[in-house]
Amino acid sequence: xxxxxxxxxxxxxxxxxxxxxxxxxxxxxxxxxxxxxxxxxxxxxxxxxxxxxxxxxxxxxxxxxxxxxxxxxxxxxxxxxxxxxxxxxxxxxxxxxxxxxxxxxxxxxxxxxxxxxxxxxxxxxxxxxxxxxxxxxxxxxxxxxxxx
Length: 148
Known about the structure:
Elements: H1 2-5, H2 9-25, H3 35-51, H4 55-66, H5 68-73, E1 77-78, E2 81-82, H6 86-101, H7 108-119
Antiparallel strand pairs: 1-2
Helix pairs in contact: 2-3, 3-4
């Protein structure tokens, strides 16, 4: 790794900034010293990125600055975990995959039920019969002729 980083000073500086960002994010609830301290650390990181003069790192610094509030909010802990919208984004992605693979659902309620069931595996079917049938009307199936 050292050999590769010694090839170019910009590459080495970019790698160090990336590691600095990883270190910034590697924190536990016990080692969290508070929002003001974390904000100072993020400001230093943003300044280092912008002052590096590396085009990609300058863009990264500007992006970090634009998302500063959201980044700092991610250091809020609930039940021992950092707050994240990752689980919601995962669910949205899964729903999009279902809709894509289905080539579009004609019946909205069927699509909704499939999505709801796929996201709630632990839920059981209701013992009550549905009041409304959501099956699409069509021609009845013909007789099945089994070939020998």
